[in-house]
Structure formats: C-alpha cells, structure tokens
Amino acid sequence: ASLSAADKNSISHRGQAIEQLLAQLPL
Questions:
Q1: What is the value of pTM for the model shown?
Q2: Which residues lie below 8 Å from residue 3, measured CB to CB, with a gap of 6+?
C-alpha cells in the first residue's frame, strides 16, 4: 500500500510535533 501525499505530509507533520515536544523535555 502506498501513502498518498496527504498521508506523508500528515506523518511528517506529526513527527515534527513529536520532535518539538521532546525538545521541551528536561533531559
């Protein structure tokens, strides 16, 4: 199954949001 452009954009956007949340964690 191939991902549509919208699916890929949604996944990449979700990944960026996760990275931003991780960057805010006190490590």
A1: 0.51
A2: 11
pLDDT digits (tens, 9 = 90+) for 12-27: 889 999 999 999 988 7
Distance in angstroms (rounded) separating the CA atoms of residues 3 and 14:
15
**Sign of the alpha-carbon torsion through 10, 20, 25, 22:** positive
Check: CB of residue 18 under 8 Å from CB of residue 10: no
The alpha carbon dihedral of 27, 21, 5, 1 has a sign of positive
Separation of CA 18 from chain center: 6
Domain boundaries, the chain: 1-27
